[in-house]
Write a structure and sequence with these properties.
By secondary structure, the chain is mostly helical. The chain contains 4 helices and 2 strands. The protein has a two-stranded antiparallel sheet with strand order 1-2. The chain is elongated, with a radius of gyration of 65 Å. Keywords: Coiled coil.
């Protein structure tokens, strides 16, 4: 994580004059929306400033922790090397300081044998390692916090971009509405001029300058009235002729119905006579067959005399 290239300080301010109610020329609702947007942008700018301050503080703390961890690591390494060198020098007859002789880190404290010295150094190295691990954990936590702050800042930037897009969209819609309103106003003016022109022509027609045209119109009206009366007379004649034709047709239809009823009666009488003739024919055939079988022709003779 390279923290040295980021320029510290507050973020660049947002040009809120673009959304100021004083610059808007729309309705009361548009001015209210513009004022609300300006207030939201001001709050967003304050939040961005606080977030940048927190980022600066976290970066300073992170740099301090890294420096402390580096110094602790260097101190641990140098102490380990020094303890090893001290042990080697002691084996070679290194001159001990007296009890009250001050050293580079203060008065020398009484120590035990070399084993205890090594154990103390190891304990000190373990403690320094624990401190180094704790500092590294703290640095990791601060890195995560910085990452979360970065995510929050990106979300804020995204919300700011969405707000700008919404404002841009509202302005575009307002411009389109103004253009449509201008077009409608121009159309209304053109219609009004056309109505005034027609009114002027009508008044000129009714004035003295339009007498000839009025006479011509009256003549055309009279011709139309005559044509309408002629059409009415023709229609009445056609209706009377249709009524007479209808009466004749009704009489013919009644005559035809009477003849049909007479013919149906004749047909019924003929059917009845045919049935009687068929019955007599069957009777004659029966008597003829019986006469042929019995050889007696008296019934046939009686039937012939009766018929």
């Amino acid at each position: 994580m390279n923290l040295g290239k980021r320029r510290k300080g507050r973020p660049p301010p947002i040009d809120t004059d673009l959304y100021s109610p004083t610059r808007s020329t729309g309705s009361e609702d548009l001015r209210f929306v513009s004022g609300s947007l300006e207030r939201l942008l001001g709050e967003n700018a304050d939040i961005r400033c606080r977030v940048h301050d927190m980022i600066d503080a976290f970066e300073d703390a992170f740099v301090c922790c890294e420096r402390r961890a580096l110094m602790t690591r260097q101190r641990t390494t140098s102490r380990g090397k020094k303890s090893i060198q001290h042990t080697r020098n002691t084996k070679q007859g290194f001159r001990r300081r007296s009890k009250n002789e001050p050293g580079p880190r203060g008065p020398v404290q009484p120590r035990g044998n070399r084993v205890n010295i090594v154990i103390d150094k190891r304990r000190e190295a373990a403690a320094l390692r624990e401190e180094l691990r704790a500092l590294e954990l703290q640095a990791a936590r601060q890195r995560r916090a910085l990452a979360e702050i970065g995510v929050t800042q990106r979300q804020k930037a995204r919300m700011n971009d969405q707000l700008k897009q919404y404002i841009r969209k509202q302005r575009t819609e307002y411009r389109h509405a103004q253009a449509a309103l201008t077009v409608n106003i121009n159309r209304m003016r053109a219609l009004r001029e056309g109505i005034l022109e027609l009114d002027y022509q009508y008044r000129a027609l009714l004035s003295d300058r339009g007498d000839s045209r009025a006479k011509r119109l009256n003549r055309e009206v009279e011709e139309l009235e005559a044509y309408r009366s002629d059409l009415a007379a023709k229609r009445q004649a056609v209706e009377s002729r249709d009524r007479s034709d209808m009466k004749t047709r009704v009489e013919i239809l009644d005559d035809l119905q009477c003849r049909i009823s007479e013919l149906s009666g004749s047909v019924k009488h003929a059917e009845r006579a045919a049935r009687v003739a068929n019955s007599r024919l069957r009777e004659i055939k029966r008597l003829h067959r019986s006469a042929e079988k019995e050889g007696n022709i008296e019934p046939l003779r009686g039937l012939a005399l009766a018929g």
